[in-house]
Amino acid sequence: MLITNAKLVDDRTVDVRISGEQIEAVEADLESADGQQVIDADGKLLLPGAIDAHVHFREPGYSHKETWKTATKSAAAGGVTTVVDMPNTDPPTTTGANFETKAELAEKAVVDYGINGGVTGEWDPDSLFEQPLCALGEVFLADSTGEMGIATDLFAKATRRAAAAGLTVTVHAEDETLFDASRREADAGGVGREANADLWSGYRTAEAEAAMIEQATNVGQQTGASIHIAHTSTPEGIDAAVAGGATIEVCPHHLYLSRDDLEVLGTYGRMNPPLRSEKRRKEVFERVVDGTVDIIATDHAPHTHEEKQQGLWEAPSGVPGVETMVPLLLESARQGEIGYERVQQLVCENPARIFGLDSKGRLEAGYDADLTLFDPQKTREIRGADTHTQCEWTPFEGRLGVFPELTMVRGEVVYERTPADSDDRSADSEQFGDVQGRNVRK
């Protein structure tokens, strides 16, 4: 296959030759061979496939929320070609046998994937570390969906095992002792979008995040483990992670949403850690733009409408996001808020580096032909009804995004979209290819 007239983030226009599963050449004016398929990019933006290093695809145990098939189709439709799944499923991915159960389900994926191991009091590290783990974690240092919160002494033992195995440790860092329990006594409003969700942000305080990041990075320094702080939601947390030598992840919901949005979102804006003030959101965005933050990942955590249509203290935490991450970032780049090269670093190059995905994340000869093609001039309104995730809602309803027109996994087209003349994404013609995802550690 030959892709011609493609624009890269550094403003070069190139041709890309693909041989089998890999990129063979990236040069100007490559010659096509007889019978070779040629795709004319027509000056559109070509990126490496994005890597979403933090997803919760819900299987096994919660297939009413999401499945590996629906979630990875959603990923492909958003320009994501590799995902890393977290361990808080049912059963949790804390033993070798439980890993194998999840790995069998993951064979339905249409993009490549990694599977992380988890830590609880009942974990079996001996059998778990025999499996092809992508990383250890999300290790929960506060309870979240799945009730996998652990104490710091067990965390230290786990990080030593990870360091010995050469695995990065992804950490959910919140100090529950610093939560503001008085918020639970206030009027929480109604259900769903009528809930007073700002109480959740006040309850799980910003101070709790920074304090636990300091503890987690201290343990990492003592044990020699590489610590990766998941879904960092505050500038103070980011600064604490930098000081502790950890790598840093920020999610699109903490980048684009704040407590100001909760009046509309209600429980649909409840997640852990919670949305922060608009001032903090802007400071987080600044740290993303200036290179302080290493990666953007989604914490894709779908729940059904029925589950979200409960009171604030009963509704589950989490929002979907794997399909909207790259489109939102490219819209920010289109608006001049962030550079295209920076976007590629955040969702392609840096996740590959941090998690040791040596064949992913770059548009260069010898790398996997995971490629995505975008037309930055053709935006679409984000609507939950148009997404491919099983939950069919999004916290970004009504915002603009730049969606891919072509997504390839190791040289195979997994998603193709032909834009309609209107600005309505539902009017576009879409097609999914028959692609078999692969475990990145095999």
Describe this structure in words.
The protein is an alpha/beta fold. It has two domains: 2-40, no CATH class; 50-361 and 381-399, TIM Barrel (Alpha-Beta Barrel), CATH 3.20.20. 28% of the residues lie in helices and 19% in strands. The strands form five sheets. It has a five-stranded antiparallel β-sheet with strand order 5-14-17-18-19, covered by helices on one side. The chain has a five-stranded parallel β-sheet with strand order 9-10-11-12-13. It has a four-stranded mixed β-sheet with strand order 3-2-1-4, with no helix packed on it. Helix 4 crosses helix 6 (206-223) and helix 6 (206-223) packs parallel to helix 7 (235-243). The relative contact order is 0.17. The mean pLDDT is 96.
Helix tally? 13
Mean pLDDT: 96
Neighbour order of strands in the largest sheet: 5-14-17-18-19
How many independent structural domains? Answer: 2
What's the architecture of the largest domain in CATH terms? Alpha-Beta Barrel
Distance between the termini: 25 Å
Name of the CATH first level of the largest domain: Alpha Beta
Characterize the overall form.
Answer: globular
CATH domain fold name of the largest domain: TIM Barrel
The level of helicity is: 25-40%
- Multimeric state of these chains? single chain
Contiguous uncertain segments of 5+ residues: none
